[in-house]
Amino acid sequence: MSTPPLASGPEGPGALRPLLDTVLDALRTGSTARGGPLPAGGPEDVARRLRDAAGDILPRHGTDDALRTLVHALAEGSADPADPLCAAHLHCPPLAVATAADLAASVLNPSLDSWDQAPAASELETLVTTTLAAEIYGTTDGTRTATALVTTGGTESNQLAVLLAREAHSAVQLVHGANAHHSLPRAAWLLGLPDPVVVPAPAGTMDPVALDEALTALRGPRGSLLVAATAGTTDAGLIDPLPDLADVCATHGARLHIDAAYGGGLLFSDRHRPALDGLDRAHTVTLDLHKLGWQPIAAGLLAVRDPHDLTALRHQADYLNATDDTEAGLPDLLDRSLRTTRRPDILKIAVTLKTLGRAGLGALVDHVCARATDLADLIASRPGLELHAPPTLSTVLFRPAGATDEAVAAVRRTLLHDGRAVLGRARLDDRLWLKATLLNPHTRPDDLAALLKLVEGHTPR
Ligand SMILES: Cc1ncc(COP(=O)(O)O)c(C=O)c1O
């Protein structure tokens, strides 16, 4: 076999073009073979088909059809978030333009751990992260410019937020709502902090009175308490009462982190942005554009109000940021992440922001939120279904009326097994609910009706 061509360099585009044709073809044939939102047959059938297609994955001599075969197999065996009946998770269908930009990121392969590997990408990252941070915190106050770190998603952002709090105050006690994402208590565990104090969230959002009581009981030294609130809960898409929680934190001198991994997308929408009032009062904010931002994974961010907090991440490795290089003007990139080699996820984000603009992104947000309201209305109009509550974001919880929790779980699994629909599950008010998370801006009202019909038709009686 001759030396395989490279993706970059003068020959790169010529070598890539026919391969891209193969990829696009295989994506099409694979999803046609699947014929629905999820491969049918359940885990064993899917695993067998994948293994049959893959064959010997490390043969002595390679084969020319690996690209076509494996892309087809993966597409055939994928959960497709672009299918309107695939609505379980905060798993968005990526925009074509963002995905195209991601191809360029792979071709150019800048690595954001040193300027000499990413001269323009590092500047683009600075530009986009300060722009996004300004969406939350406004523009510079003259002494400091809020910024953001690029992460692999909400989990890494939440971990970094807890780490920055620990470094700012040496010891920190995390306090979060019962509705918080599991990555927050996990971050406390990872960082060797005491077990978090969990504040009740009786109606799905953190109760400010209960937070006040919890902080009073803790009476930590000023600054040693870190409160994590949520703007867009994983289970129900609810937003904590941010201004009230920020007031309570201010009274107790507690640091505030807001996990807006889901709800952060509302920043782009004139209509929905007011629901995020109070976000700017947080020291740190998790954003995640591979949720309500239509990016291919990964596209997480942690916005940081005071850039001085980032001194905690300062680190020296002579081969990447030698002091004399830095003094001579080469930008030091190591305090932007705990990772070393880092892909330029910022490119697809930048391309999306500039292509759609705030209005274009806001329209997508408005659209999926409106579809969620449509779905809730449809559910409410059907006597065989029970709606949990009108949606705040784009998540709708419902269940077949009068069904047991076992029946609710069974209908979800049957639809998954048959590859007919992908719905999530959530336990709220001590009952199990089906969860539809609408992130597909192409979903039509007819699709929603079809989804409900499937649920009604597959509920065990
Ligand atoms: C509120 C919230 N925070 C954090 C996360 C974690 O994000 P990721 O899966 O991108 O790490 C999620 C994931 O669903 C989430 O819903």
UniProtKB/TrEMBL annotation:
<dbReference type="InterPro" id="IPR015421">
    <property type="entry name" value="PyrdxlP-dep_Trfase_major"/>
</dbReference>
<keyword id="KW-0456">Lyase</keyword>
<dbReference type="Pfam" id="PF00282">
    <property type="entry name" value="Pyridoxal_deC"/>
</dbReference>
<dbReference type="GO" id="GO:0019752">
    <property type="term" value="P:carboxylic acid metabolic process"/>
</dbReference>
<protein>
    <submittedName>
        <fullName>Aminotransferase class V-fold PLP-dependent enzyme</fullName>
    </submittedName>
</protein>
<feature type="modified residue" description="N6-(pyridoxal phosphate)lysine">
    <location>
        <position position="291"/>
    </location>
</feature>
<dbReference type="GO" id="GO:0030170">
    <property type="term" value="F:pyridoxal phosphate binding"/>
</dbReference>
<dbReference type="GO" id="GO:0008483">
    <property type="term" value="F:transaminase activity"/>
</dbReference>
<comment type="similarity">
    <text>Belongs to the group II decarboxylase family.</text>
</comment>
<keyword id="KW-0663">Pyridoxal phosphate</keyword>
<dbReference type="GO" id="GO:0004058">
    <property type="term" value="F:aromatic-L-amino-acid decarboxylase activity"/>
</dbReference>
<keyword id="KW-0808">Transferase</keyword>
<keyword id="KW-0032">Aminotransferase</keyword>
<dbReference type="InterPro" id="IPR015424">
    <property type="entry name" value="PyrdxlP-dep_Trfase"/>
</dbReference>
<dbReference type="InterPro" id="IPR002129">
    <property type="entry name" value="PyrdxlP-dep_de-COase"/>
</dbReference>
<keyword id="KW-0210">Decarboxylase</keyword>
<dbReference type="GO" id="GO:0005737">
    <property type="term" value="C:cytoplasm"/>
</dbReference>
<dbReference type="InterPro" id="IPR015422">
    <property type="entry name" value="PyrdxlP-dep_Trfase_small"/>
</dbReference>
